[in-house]
Specification:
About 40% of the residues lie in helices and about 20% in strands. With about 170 residues, it is of the alpha/beta class.
Length: about 170
């Protein structure tokens, strides 16, 4: 009896953990960077390779960093939402073009529209790695002190913008 109780108990615990995992939203992967300073970077501006932008240049304003790529199918689905958000002018949106050829990225923006105040070229993906990017698209809300306050994994939706991102932006900007 005792020999079967321990394996059954172990199996029960394993099933409980698996069941709990199935109830979680896969888009809500916790980021260890929430509440911490955004990783330092200096990257070339996509359409002005002689110009660079750093995270330090963004101090003093609330902003969004949208990680995207021309090869990303989900980015194409998200793009109209990002365009609409940019049109409101409520928050500056900066793009982080991830592991992409600059010419491909520029053609993509020319074809679908450019919502970004500036888009930065992270050709090797090193800055994306520093931000803990799991895949594209991802969007970060960064406060005036350069601290990451929220991360959206996957495409932005109108509901995510309305219910989560923009209320947080207003709170941080106030």
């Amino acid at each position: 009896m005792k020999r079967t109780a321990l394996p059954l108990l172990g199996a029960g615990v394993l099933v409980a953990f698996m069941a709990a995992g199935l109830t979680r939203n896969p888009r809500e992967v916790p980021s260890p960077l929430i509440g911490k300073a955004a990783p330092a970077f200096t990257l070339p501006v996509l359409d002005q390779p002689g110009r660079t932008l750093s995270v330090q240049d963004m101090r003093g304003k609330v902003w969004l960093l949208n990680v995207w790529a021309s090869w990303c199918v989900a980015c194409r689905l998200e793009h109209p939402v990002v365009l609409d958000a940019a049109r409101t002018g409520a928050v500056p949106i900066y793009g982080l073009n991830y592991k992409d050829a600059p010419a491909d990225a520029q053609r993509w923006l020319a074809r679908f529209g450019n919502p970004y105040a500036l888009s930065l070229s992270d050709r090797d993906g090193l800055v994306g790695i520093d931000f803990g990017v799991y895949g594209v698209p991802e969007t970060f809300v960064i406060d005036k002190q350069g601290v990451i306050r929220h991360k959206v994994i996957g495409p932005l939706t109108p509901e995510t913008l309305r219910d989560t991102v923009m209320p947080l932006v207003r709170k941080l900007d106030g």
